[in-house]
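Please, does this match?
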Amino acid sequence: MKVVILAGGYGTRLSEETELKPKPMVHIGGMPILWHIMKTYSHYGFDEFIILLGYKGYVIKEYFFNYFLHQSDVTIDLKNNSVEVHNNFSESWKVTLLDTGLDTMTGGRIKRAKEYINNETFMLTYGDGVADINLKQLERFHRSSNSLMTLTSVQPEGRFGNLDIHENGLLKRFNEKPIGDNGWINGGYFMCEPEVLDYIEGDGTIFEKEPLENIVAENKVFAYQHQGFWKCMDTLRDKQQLENMWQKGNAPWKIW
């Protein structure tokens, strides 16, 4: 089963990092967050990827084209222009890097992958969110629901602490950054039937608007409720939090 990853946005809220690189190439623990996402899928046996490029997509192309150079020791003989690779740490991945346009919306990017999806069930996610989701359980849930699409719903960490205050002003409980205030949001990590592509008009279509709303209106979308860790790297603060988790050996998404 192919895994489609949206990796073409500008990442403007992380401009400190995205001035020179696309957001999926921002590093956590010395590796692009895109690599972390792909490692999660690969852990469950999903090794064929379609990466939808846009803003500074050449950076992602260069990374995978020179993956040996990035991940292995090499000897380069400048005299005869030969390269010998030592300690090969490459992955068993097949990666299609698809230019989908600089200003194409999310739905348009997905639509452009139609010929590579090849009329098969496919997985889909964003190139900036990591999770400890069990992708085999997600697949089983999707198959059993007979739905057109399954999205993973998550409860993100609240940004601020929660106070439980008695009517006389006495503080009864302090909960530092509770999970999501009992609200669920779209966390990506979709499973889609190929018919989902029929709901997308063209490059200007935002996947999360008309396509998703229309499929929901037809009662063809189920939500897989992920109770574990999920975090989107949306801002520099998010990036720093993920980096701190990794450096402390407490990265819940590292399931490989």
The two ends are 19 Å apart (CA to CA). The chain has a mean pLDDT of 90. DSSP finds nine helices and 16 strands in the chain. Residues 2-155+185-247 form a domain with the Spore Coat Polysaccharide Biosynthesis Protein SpsA; Chain A fold (CATH 3.90.550.10).
